[in-house]
Structure of omega-amidase:
Amino acid sequence: FRLALIQLRVSAAKADNLQRACGLVREASAKGAKVVALPECFNSPYGTQYFKEYAEKIPGESTQKLSEVAKECSIYLIGGRSIPEEDGGKLYNTCTVFGPDGAMLAKHRKVHLFDINVPGKIQFKESETLSPGNSFSMFDTPYCKVGLGICYDMRFAEMAQIYGQKGCQLLIYPGAFNLTTGPAHWELLQRGRAVDNQVYVATISPARDEKASYVAWGHSTVVNPWGEVIAKAGTEETVIYTDIDLTKLAEIRQQIPILSQKRHDLYGIETKQ
């Protein structure tokens, strides 16, 4: 099946972001994409100072638009970090997924909050305004089961392993790495998660805006289960396409059968929720 990743140029105008995002979703569908993904924070600038201002309930304005365009195009639509979600007085970094009938199939709240301090380069603390999610998020398609994470979630190998154990063959991470962590770890982490679990991994970044308070790395990417980069964007607004070949995934798992060779008598990963 064809997967499309929309590397959107995000502005401060929510209505404009939504309109352009939906237009690019329609374009991707017209080119045969069956699963389409938007980047983290696609309808607002990324930064703790913006989260409260741009927050919405779910369902709300942004998710309604995503539901409508998913139904119109008859696709599976991953809404990036569609919005900062407000619920019960708390804010969450939330990704929603809609099916071809417009129904919401999954709602992933970012599990691991991005609190880092690299002296002289970048300091960021999502926990100043956001609360963490407490659950794994998967959804089924006629093609395969898909596991969801958001940006910093990708650094935690256990989460990807659990998705693999539960039958996911594609992991999708809307993300916004920066100019410090992006060149160092963006592609490295994707290839690691793909090889470790013999799955496809797709990451979707906003396009780079050098004038933004937080400058995204860009380079939305798809990696196959062999660890090869099979599609990669630059830094500009664009849509990239790749065909997900599940036959190739099965062949790789047969050739190097690590999933059946794990020593469950010695170690294991378990979920608490």
